[in-house]
Amino acid sequence: MNSIIEAMKNRRSVRKFRPDMPERKVIDEIIEAGLYAASGRNFQGVRIIAVTDRAKRDEISEMNRKIGGWDEGFDPFYGAPAMLIVLADKSRTTYLYDGSLVMGNLMLAAHSLGLGSCWIHRAKEEFETDQGRKIISSLGFEGEWEGIGHCALGYPEGELPGTPERKADRVFYID
Q1: What is the rounded distance in angstroms from the CA atom of residue 80 to the CA atom of residue 15?
Q2: What's the pTM?
Q3: How far apart are CA 37 and CA 124, in angstroms?
């Protein structure tokens, strides 16, 4: 089977990570794969924020926890030591799709390099807060940006989840 299709079929969301940080060169390779995602009219209006600083990662995790309504002490990033935050330029009509394609590339690249990943939501709500906008502005972003998602990233603790059966009646042909 083609290795890309095999990765698509075998990649699973990881919800328990080891604490050791992946090497920077591996994270950079995953980011590069994200930057090669397709985008509407090749505008490339998506940005990735790599968070490897533990204090900043924990700050963002706490923002996410509060938005999600979980009890204090819960980590919505499942202990992942790194996260890649995907934001998209809202001035583009395809921004949501473009950002989603970046997220898919990040997760497939992570899997292909032996790392686990999980798409964590609530980035939209995070970056609509004053605290979130402050993070964006500290990086020099101008314009309107929407958080598409976080790619929690790290080495899986334990075995990857199995592949569930695919549901029937999801493909139709018009010949």
Answers
A1: 8
A2: 0.96
A3: 20
Q: Which domains does the chain have, with CATH numbers?
A: 3-139 (3.40.109.10)
Nearest to 81 by CA among 156, 158, 159: 156
Exposure b/e, 44-56, CB count within 10 A at least 16 = b:
bbbbbbbbeeeee
Please state, in angstroms and rounded to a whole number, the distance separating the CA atoms of residues 106 and 36. Answer: 10
Query: 22, 82 in Cβ contact below 8 A?
Result: yes
Q: Report the mean per-residue pLDDT for the chain.
A: 97
The answer on pLDDT for 105 being more than 90 is: yes
Q: How many CB atoms lie within 10 A of CB 61?
A: 22
Side-chain half-sphere exposure of 143, counting CA atoms within 13 A: 11
